[in-house]
Design brief:
Layout lengths: L1 H17 L2 H39 L1
Helix pairs in contact: 1-2
């Protein structure tokens, strides 16, 4: 997922350098959206993993 965000960021940078402002803006928006979604998923899975680890450690 981060790879896709990085790809759209590169596309946006190249489009901005070539003067395609609408494509660059759209690519940057897509990259930001994908990055935020990936960050939210990471935090949710991190919290769930910590809770599961604590539950396993309490049973030992």
């Amino acid at each position: 997922m981060i790879g896709a965000a990085f790809t759209f960021l590169i596309i946006g940078l190249i489009a901005a350098l070539l003067g395609f402002t609408s494509i660059a803006g759209a690519s940057f928006a897509i990259a930001k959206f994908i990055f935020v979604i990936a960050l939210v998923i990471f935090v949710v899975l991190l919290v769930l993993g910590l809770k599961a680890g604590k539950a396993v450690a309490d049973k030992l």
